[in-house]
């Protein structure tokens, strides 16, 4: 019997070994896979166990955290949700994150390795650092001016500091309160469903993610291309353009909105927004050089990140001359985000150099020490410095005595360009009102701000939608706010 | 039949010289102090980790634990002075760790506090331990009550059938707000019966019967009858009570003890074949068991179906989250397992918060307990004692394997209590009685022969 008891003992030892091998498999071998399983709530619990870091505007947080007492504990709050929604985005237990909340999530949620003062400290202690903060480049006064200017009308505003690329304002209207998406439960789901079903699309960040036909504001790109290419050497020389202008190779006649464009110079064409002249100049510059110029301003460039991704602005690369003529005045397939058009204005104001736009000034640890600085860098040169000077003069004339007089600010040099873009099938849609501009305090060495405003309010009367009427006053308010800073 | 009731008169083999082992009660006391210390530190740690404060009743808790350990030690010292010094400290440590884990899980279920009850049951268990050690002077007395044991065991197992099912299994009796699992007590009684029956009939079982095929012999009906009855009992438990774990335990216990008594592999083969047939039939046709098998084969199926993780998946997540060193007591999320986190799935909390290291330590403690049980069986001289020690050790081993293997995905999950760790009164009390019997058996095993001088 002794032998059989021993065998039983060996059998039990075998069972023990099987258990030990299996727990080693589960706890070490499979551990990472189990942790990454989407049904495992532990990462989410850990993520929301501590208050999330804040997003700062002018050094003050525009976000907060609320202890919900739920499993996913700390929920996001927003001090002025609709105003900053295009900047912050949302941070939701149910729907994840967007915009800066997404782009700087690692810092805000405390997973960024840079938050640790010593390498591997938190890996060894199995703790998690407090979430860091993300300081934005946005200036509250500029943002508020833009938001108030749009006053709930559909549209967007993007404002940049031309010399640095700092985004001073990023407004999309109508907006929404991202705090309605914080947390879990039916209330959050209902809010999400309602926001997505809203025909006004409040969650669409029009400043970064919507592309509009830029219309006449694109004439700045065409004019710069003509000067750089030497197609136009004297901006005041008559261009011998008929009014209306027959599109090359077709019998279609391109009209002007106003009169006095026949045979106008390029300066007058910019000042009074002559379609005929600029279309003809665009054709003269030619497809290759127009595409090249548009690319230098940032068109057709995929992968612009501020740090959230920005929709691609388009200038077609394969067109017949008549299509090129329309594209040169910002119609046909030409499409641009408001941020892209702000970059166009900024390039002119900054002497031809396009600065890479960015939204996050720096990220900091909880104690205020820096994790990373903003990525200030150049996107390249859009035009020669001489061309930029010439373009500044042309844009100033638009505001001083042209189509953009509503943007004039006493005591400041303001250059601008209006636009009224046709769209829809047979141009049946309500036109979009554009205004792009830049402003420099008198005597200041550097321009303070470049801004692009687009108003697409379908509810307005068709005649009221014009760059000067609807968009220029908003741009002026934004520039005034920026100059006051 | 007569062999069972006959006076135990084993022709004792001539004892080897120097069988009188040292008593080692001092070692036991030192180990007990360590076990109590670990439990108290765990108690304090959980309080600090979850609430930031030393738990209010810490002093009383410590005093109670010390008193219980001391009482048990004194019982052993005076009534079973030659007992194995490891058995009692291991039991105290496992019970203490169980209390710590339950106290920790109570934090996540403020509406359902169970640590207090568990403490009372543990005290009752220690009380019964003391009673058994004090009153049962010779384990061979139990041999006389073999048929009484099996009758009581059957009654205990049948009672829950008449009570409403809880969570799909008829294993509880609810009475006056308390619930018992009679099957827990039944397993000791069955071990006693098997040991007595097999000790009396092992010669017949091993040698008689017409040859059927080479070494396989057909057994005479007289001895075959009770064996078939036990097999039917296991299946009956399974079908009537839907308790796969207990059924597996009874059957495994029976096969192991039968093998120990007879040494005939053929029986093991037949037993395993019958078990496989039964398990296959039940696994196929019984929906409750069938779903357990499905869960085991693919624990994440419910996630893929979009229904969220099932209990086994949550348990695996908990073990996985523990990793090598664990999250630390009070820092895990094993409460996500939900129902039965404190009982059947208590090991998941140990795994998540103490890590592979802590879990392996706990399993090795069980291994040590079982090994000391077998050691007692090896050292004993009477077949009944040997079989009983083997059976009791096997109960612990099988139970640990069935539930630990179940919650870690090694075998299909069956509801069963982790000995000493899991919340549940009947289980704790039963395990204390098992340890008491092992203490008694090891005392007999190591005791110097009467009439022999230990110093010889």
From TrEMBL, chain A:
- GO terms classed as biological process: cell division
Span-the-membrane segments of this chain are none
Highest taxon of source: Bacteria
Q: Which residues form a coiled coil?
A: none
Alphabetical UniProt keywords: Cell cycle, Cell division
SUPFAM superfamilies of this UniProt entry? Answer: beta-lactamase/transpeptidase-like
UniProt domain Penicillin binding protein A dimerisation: residue ranges: 52-133
Residue ranges occupied by any Penicillin-binding protein transpeptidase domain in the UniProt entry:
155-480
What protein name is recorded for this chain? Cell division protein FtsI/penicillin-binding protein 2
Source species of the chain: Streptomyces avidinii
Automatic annotation (TrEMBL), chain B:
Q: Where are the transmembrane segments?
A: 29-46, 58-76, 88-107, 119-136, 145-165, 185-207, 219-238, 244-260, 267-285, 354-375, 387-411, 417-439
Per UniProt, the keywords (alphabetical) are: Cell cycle, Cell division, Cell shape, Membrane, Transmembrane, Transmembrane helix
Q: How does it sit in the membrane?
A: Multi-pass membrane protein
Q: Which InterPro entries match?
A: FtsW/RodA
Q: Which domain of life is it from?
A: Bacteria
Location of the region described as Disordered in the Swiss-Prot/TrEMBL record: 1-23
Identify the main location: membrane
What Pfam families does this protein map onto? FTSW_RODA_SPOVE
Record localization: Membrane
Asked if the record carries the keyword Glycoprotein, the reply is no
Query: Mind listing the GO biological process terms from this record?
Result: cell division
- This chain belongs to the protein called Cell division protein FtsW (Lipid II flippase)
Q: Which organism is it from?
A: Streptomyces avidinii
């Amino acid at each position: 019997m002794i032998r059989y008891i021993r065998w039983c003992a060996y059998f039990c030892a075998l069972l023990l070994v099987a258990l030990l091998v299996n727990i080693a498999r589960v706890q070490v071998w499979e551990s990472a896979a189990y942790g990454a399983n989407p049904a495992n709530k532990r990462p989410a619990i850990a993520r929301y166990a501590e208050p999330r870091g804040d997003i700062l505007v002018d050094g003050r947080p525009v976000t907060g955290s609320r202890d919900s007492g739920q499993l996913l504990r700390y929920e996001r709050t927003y001090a002025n949700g609709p105003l900053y929604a295009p900047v912050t985005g949302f941070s939701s237990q149910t729907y994840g994150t967007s915009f800066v909340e997404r782009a700087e999530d690692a810092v805000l949620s405390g997973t960024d390795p840079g938050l640790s003062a010593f390498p591997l400290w938190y890996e060894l202690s199995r703790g998690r650092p407090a979430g860091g903060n993300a300081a934005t480049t946005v200036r509250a006064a500029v943002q508020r001016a833009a938001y108030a200017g749009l006053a709930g009308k559909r549209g967007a505003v993007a404002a940049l500091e031309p010399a640095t690329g700092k985004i001073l304002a990023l407004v999309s209207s109508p907006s929404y309160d991202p705090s309605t998406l914080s947390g879990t439960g039916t209330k959050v789901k209902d809010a999400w469903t309602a926001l997505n079903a809203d025909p006004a699309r409040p969650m669409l960040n029009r400043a970064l993610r919507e592309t509009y036909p830029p219309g006449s504001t694109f004439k700045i790109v065409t004019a710069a291309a003509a000067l750089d290419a030497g197609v136009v050497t004297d901006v005041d020389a008559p261009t011998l353009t008929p009014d209306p202008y027959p599109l090359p190779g077709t019998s279609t006649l391109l009209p002007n909105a106003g009169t006095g464009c026949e045979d106008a110079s390029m300066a007058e064409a910019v000042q009074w927004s002559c379609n005929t002249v600029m279309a003809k100049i665009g054709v003269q510059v030619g497809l290759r050089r127009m595409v090249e110029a548009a690319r230098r301003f940032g068109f057709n460039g995929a992968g612009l990140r501020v740090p959230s991704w920005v929709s691609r602005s388009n200038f077609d690369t394969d067109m017949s001359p008549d299509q090129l003529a329309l594209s040169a005045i910002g119609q046909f397939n030409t499409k641009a985000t408001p941020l892209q058009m702000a970059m166009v204005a900024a390039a002119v104001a900054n002497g031809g150099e396009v600065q890479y736009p960015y939204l996050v000034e720096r990220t900091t640890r909880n104690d205020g020490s820096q994790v990373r600085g903003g990525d200030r860098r150049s996107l390249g040169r859009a035009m020669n410095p001489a061309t930029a000077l010439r373009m500044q003069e042309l844009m100033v004339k638009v505001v001083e005595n042209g189509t953009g007089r509503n943007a004039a600010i006493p005591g400041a040099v303001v250059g601008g360009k209006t636009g009224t873009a046709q769209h829809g099938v047979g141009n049946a849609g309500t036109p979009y009102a554009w205004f792009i501009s830049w402003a420099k305090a008198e005597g200041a060495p550097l321009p303070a701000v470049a801004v692009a405003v687009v108003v697409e309010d379908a509810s307005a009367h068709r005649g009221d939608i014009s760059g000067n009427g609807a968009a220029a006053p908003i741009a002026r308010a934004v520039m005034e706010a920026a100059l006051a800073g | 039949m007569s062999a069972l009731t006959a006076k135990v008169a084993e022709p004792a083999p001539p004892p080897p010289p120097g069988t009188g082992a040292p008593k080692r009660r001092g070692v036991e006391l030192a180990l007990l102090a360590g076990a109590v210390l670990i439990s108290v530190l765990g108690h304090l740690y959980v309080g600090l980790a979850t609430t930031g404060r030393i738990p209010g009743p810490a002093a009383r808790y410590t005093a109670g634990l010390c008193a219980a350990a001391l009482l048990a030690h004194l019982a052993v010292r005076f009534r079973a002075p030659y007992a194995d010094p490891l058995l009692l400290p291991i039991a105290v440590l496992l019970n203490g760790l169980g209390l710590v884990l339950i106290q920790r899980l109570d934090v996540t279920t403020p509406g359902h506090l169970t640590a207090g009850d568990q403490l009372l049951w543990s005290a009752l268990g220690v009380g019964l331990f003391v009673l058994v050690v004090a009153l049962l002077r010779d384990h061979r007395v139990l041999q006389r009550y073999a048929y009484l044991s099996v009758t009581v065991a059957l009654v205990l197992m049948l009672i829950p059938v008449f009570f409403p099912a809880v969570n799909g299994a008829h294993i509880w009796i609810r009475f006056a707000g308390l619930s018992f699992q009679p099957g827990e007590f039944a397993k000791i009684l069955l071990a006693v019966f098997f040991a007595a029956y097999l000790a009396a009939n092992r010669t017949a079982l091993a040698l008689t019967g017409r040859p059927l095929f080479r070494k396989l012999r057909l057994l005479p009906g007289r001895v075959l009858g009770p064996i078939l009855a036990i097999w039917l009992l296991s299946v009956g438990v399974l079908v009537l009570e839907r308790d796969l774990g207990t059924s597996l335990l009874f059957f495994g216990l029976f096969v192991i003890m039968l093998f120990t008594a007879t040494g005939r592999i053929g029986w093991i083969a037949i037993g395993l074949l019958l078990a496989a047939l039964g398990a296959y039939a039940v696994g196929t046709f019984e929906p409750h068991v069938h779903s357990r098998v499905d869960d085991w084969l693919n624990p994440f199926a419910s996630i893929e179906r979009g229904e969220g993780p099932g209990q086994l998946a949550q348990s695996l997540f908990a073990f996985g989250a523990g990793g090598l060193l664990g999250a630390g007591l009070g820092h895990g999320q094993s409460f996500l397992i939900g129902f039965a986190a404190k009982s059947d799935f208590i090991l998941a909390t140990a795994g998540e918060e103490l890590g592979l290291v802590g879990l392996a330590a706990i399993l090795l403690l069980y291994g040590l307990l079982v090994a000391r049980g077998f050691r007692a069986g090896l050292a004993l001289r009477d077949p009944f004692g040997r079989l009983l020690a083997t059976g009791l050790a096997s109960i612990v081993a099988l139970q640990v394997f069935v539930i630990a293997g179940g919650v870690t995905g090694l075998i299909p999950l069956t509801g069963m209590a982790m000995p000493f760790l899991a919340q549940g009164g009947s289980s704790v009390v039963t395990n204390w009685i098992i340890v008491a019997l092992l203490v008694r058996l090891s005392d007999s095993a190591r005791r110097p022969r009467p009439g022999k001088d230990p110093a010889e």
